[in-house]
Known about the structure:
- By secondary structure, the protein is mainly alpha-helical.
- It is built from 3 helices and no strands.
- It has one domain (2-63).
Amino acid sequence: xxxxxxxxxxxxxxxxxxxxGLLFIFFGLSxxxxxxxxxxxxxxxxxxxxxxxxxxLKSIFLRKK
Length: 65
């Protein structure tokens, strides 16, 4: 759990400094989701949002062919 919080905090710091902030936030939430319900819900919502973005990008790129 300490590793998850550490990655989450590092990700938040990297959002305003150079670095892969979103990636660290995602990994931190994924680790925390193993034990904490609110992190599991945030992780689920994030994955659903990512799936929507990917589907939209696929439709845009497939339409151009």
